[in-house]
Amino acid sequence: MNSDEVDPPGGVEVDPPPQVLSLSWPDFPQSVVSVLKSLKEEDDFIDVTLACHSRQFSAHKVVLSACSPYFRRLLKVSKHGGEEEDGDEEEETVPINIWLGVEC
Questions:
Q1: What confidence tens digit (pLDDT) does each residue in 17-36 have?
Q2: pTM above 0.90, yes or no
Q3: Which fold has domain 45-80+94-104?
Q4: Which of 68, 66, 67, 61 is nearest to 92 (CA)?
């Protein structure tokens, strides 16, 4: 202990205050868009398919949910996965939403 320091009351050591970490990521929005585009192009983590007439579009639920309150509500109530009644886990599936009467 330095001679200028005072013993803690009762001789109990006090933890130093936590260090503050500041993280700055100036191009964060562009980086997120770039990574999401890359994931889409490589079909990584695709977890939903939209079908309209004879066309199909693969997508990410999180992106659809972030961009549309309608998709957010729809995808929240149509969750897939979990366990079957006999305890065996279901094989992961990609849900398909079929849109009729919609121009695409």
A1: 888 888 888 899 999 889 98
A2: no
A3: Potassium Channel Kv1.1; Chain A (3.30.710)
A4: 61
